[in-house]
């Protein structure tokens, strides 16, 4: 089992170190190799995703990724910015399916911005399409408008696009994931306004006919945004496009209390995957030893389950995390009265001890 370890920037190095510690205690046969990515790689090699890092990632069964980015790189040309590394990895590895579970742990119910009864027991899975949509559609750019409300004015434009195979493959991923859960899929679109999403809705409906055991419903994205804060437990698997998925998955993250708890997986058709916390490099707290490593540790558990075929080991990590929460250990982001505040390393050590 080859794992490429790409810690990246900011708190990335601190949290990935804890996940590696947890993986090492499992006594499985891993081959882990570390490489720079993001701003760290720009400093060392002049590029956020150097050839050597990309090759390591391509040859690995799975990639454990921290986070990239820092305000100090904001003035770099776009292709040299740290964030290009993650976009490049998604593109080069064909990572089209992004799994973002939003689980509200029993002990953290009060940390949610919603009333405890709305989130107690919450366990939803947002599946975001990752390689299409307005993020990559061409043409895009700036020009002088020749029509519209202000002809002659400077304008910018992007293109929203989805092809049938792109929608079909993400729909299959969603229906198959739902089969292992409560057998319900909600497809989120904006079919009332956008042709791209009328097509999305039509294709998801067609694919759904192959899964008669899974219940499918459709929801407009504005309503989905509302329902997520009104009655989030009505959802189980949510499947949507790249942009809506970006926004809704962050919204869902907040229901669970802290972004520091939320793992993610991005998979390609071969189940090769990139595993990373849902949060960024948190430059505001980097180097202080206070970041919550649990999102990254739980990402390592997803890696064991999805890419390395080690479901028991994944279970061991996840129950160890529940155990340390039950012990009352909390990093600053989830700390509350009556619990014990610990730093990044102590939290990692506690998970290791629980395993
Ligand atoms: P962020 O997720 O890094 O931080 C948002 C807030 O959450 C901050 O107050 C931070 O301290 C807190 N936070 C995040 N992770 C935490 C953890 N594990 N424990 C405790 N607190 C935590 O998002 P932000 O501030 O918008 O972006 C910072 C940098 O990260 C930017 O350069 C951005 O581009 C990059 N970024 C990278 C991502 C990636 O590598 N996949 C994803 C999102 C942002
Ligand atoms: Mg986001």
From TrEMBL:
Native organism: Ramlibacter aurantiacus
GO BP term, pick one: L-leucine biosynthetic process
Known catalytic reactions: (2R,3S)-3-isopropylmalate + NAD(+) = 4-methyl-2-oxopentanoate + CO2 + NADH
Protein name as annotated: 3-isopropylmalate dehydrogenase
Annotated binding of substrate, by residue: 90, 100, 128, 222
InterPro entries attached to this UniProt entry: IsoCit/isopropylmalate_DH_CS (IPR019818), IsoPropMal-DH-like_dom (IPR024084), Isopropylmalate_DH (IPR004429)
Necessary cofactors: Mg(2+); Mn(2+)
Principal place of residence: cytoplasm
One GO cellular component term: cytosol
Alphabetically ordered keywords of this record: Amino-acid biosynthesis, Branched-chain amino acid biosynthesis, Cytoplasm, Leucine biosynthesis, Magnesium, Manganese, Metal-binding, NAD, Oxidoreductase
Cofactor note: Binds 1 Mg(2+) or Mn(2+) ion per subunit.
Pfam families documented for this protein: Iso_dh
Domain Isopropylmalate dehydrogenase-like stretches: 2-351
Gene Ontology molecular functions: 3-isopropylmalate dehydrogenase activity; magnesium ion binding; NAD binding
Homology family: Belongs to the isocitrate and isopropylmalate dehydrogenases family. LeuB type 1 subfamily.
Chain positions recorded as NAD(+) binding sites: 280-292
Positions bound to Mg(2+): 222, 246, 250
SMART domains registered for this protein in UniProt: Iso_dh (SM01329)
Annotated site residues (Important for catalysis) in this chain: 135, 190
Subunit record text: Homodimer.
Key word Oxidoreductase present: yes
């Amino acid at each position: 089992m080859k794992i490429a370890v790409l810690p990246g920037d900011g708190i990335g190095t601190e949290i990935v170190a804890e996940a590696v510690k947890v993986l090492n205690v499992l006594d499985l046969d891993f081959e882990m190799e570390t490489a720079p990515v993001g701003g760290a790689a720009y400093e060392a090699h002049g590029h956020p995703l150097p050839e050597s890092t990309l090759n390591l990632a391509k040859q690995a069964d799975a990639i454990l990724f921290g986070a990239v980015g820092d305000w100090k790189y904001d003035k770099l040309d776009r292709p040299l910015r740290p964030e290009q590394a993650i976009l490049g990895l998604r593109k080069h590895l064909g990572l089209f399916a992004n799994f973002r579970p939003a689980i509200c742990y029993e002990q953290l119910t009060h940390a949610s911005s919603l009333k405890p009864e709305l989130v107690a027991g919450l366990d939803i899975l947002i599946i975001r399409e990752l390689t299409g949509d307005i993020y990559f559609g061409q043409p895009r750019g700036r020009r002088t408008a020749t029509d519209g409300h202000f002809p002659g004015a400077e304008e910018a434009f992007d293109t929203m696009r989805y092809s049938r195979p792109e929608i079909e493959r993400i729909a299959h991923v969603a229906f198959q994931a739902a089969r292992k859960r409560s057998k319900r899929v909600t497809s989120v679109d904006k079919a009332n306004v956008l042709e791209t999403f009328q097509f999305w809705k039509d294709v998801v409906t067609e694919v759904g006919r192959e899964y008669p055991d899974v219940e499918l419903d459709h929801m407009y994205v504005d309503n989905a945004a509302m329902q997520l804060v009104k009655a989030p437990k009505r959802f189980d698997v949510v499947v949507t496009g790249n942009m809506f998925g970006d926004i809704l998955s962050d919204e869902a993250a907040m229901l669970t209390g802290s972004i520091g708890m939320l793992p993610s997986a991005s998979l390609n058709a071969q189940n090769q995957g990139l595993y990373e916390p849902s949060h960024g490099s948190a430059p505001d707290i980097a180097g202080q030893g206070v970041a919550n490593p649990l999102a990254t540790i739980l990402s390592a558990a997803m890696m064991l389950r999805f890419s390395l075929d080690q479901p028991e080991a994944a279970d061991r990590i996840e129950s160890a995390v529940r155990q340390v929460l039950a012990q009352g250990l909390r990093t600053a982001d989830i700390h509350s009265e009556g619990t014990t505040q610990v730093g990044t390393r102590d939290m990692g050590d506690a998970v290791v001890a629980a395993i």
